[in-house]
Amino acid sequence: MLRRLLALLLTVWALGFAGFAAFQPQPAPIAKADGIIVLTGGEGRIARGLDLLRDGVAPRLLISGVDPEVKPGELAAEYKMSAALLACCITLGYESVDTRSNARESAQWIKRHGLHRVRLVTSDWHMRRAAWELRQTIPADVELTEDAVPTRPSLGILFAEYSKFVLRRLWHIGKG
C-alpha cells in the first residue's frame, strides 16, 4: 500500500513538473499600469522593466532585491538611465533577499503609492512563484499582470523552482 501511494505521489509530481517545464509563462501584451515591479536576479529583467517605463506603460518602477552594495549611480550607468529618470520614477528596493521578501517589499511599495494596476517582471521560470507570493501580500483588488522575461533555464533551475513552488504552496495550505 505504501509503495503504491509513493508511486502515485511521484507520478503526480513528475506530471506536474513536466507541465511546469513545458508551459512557461510568456511576456504580457503591452497595457497601461500604475506601476512596474522588477525582481532582480535574472538577465533581462531590469532592462525589460526600464523599457516599459521609458515606453510610458507606467509612471513608476520598483526594482526589488537590489544588492545593498549597488549604488544608484552605478545602476544608472549600467542601464543608461538618466539621473532625472532615476530620481523621479524609479525606486530601488534594498530590503529583500528572496522571493517572499520581494513580495513584502513590493506590497509596501504598492500601498505607499496607492497603486491598483501593477505589472510584475521576472524570468519565465520564476514567474509562477513570484506572482503567487505577491498575490498573498497585496489586496485582492490590485490587478497584477505577469510579464515574464523569456529565458533558457537549465533542467536544474526548473527542477529547483518547481520544487520551491510546490513546497511553498503546500506549506501555505498546511499553515492555513
From TrEMBL:
Residue spans crossing the bilayer: none
Superkingdom of this protein's organism: Bacteria
GO cellular component: plasma membrane
A single BP term in Gene Ontology: Gram-negative-bacterium-type cell wall biogenesis
Pfam families: DUF218
Residue ranges annotated for the DUF218 domain, each copy included: 34-146
Gene3D superfamilies (UniProt xref): HUPs
Signal sequence, renumbered to the chain: none
Protein name in UniProt: Uncharacterized SAM-binding protein YcdF (DUF218 family)
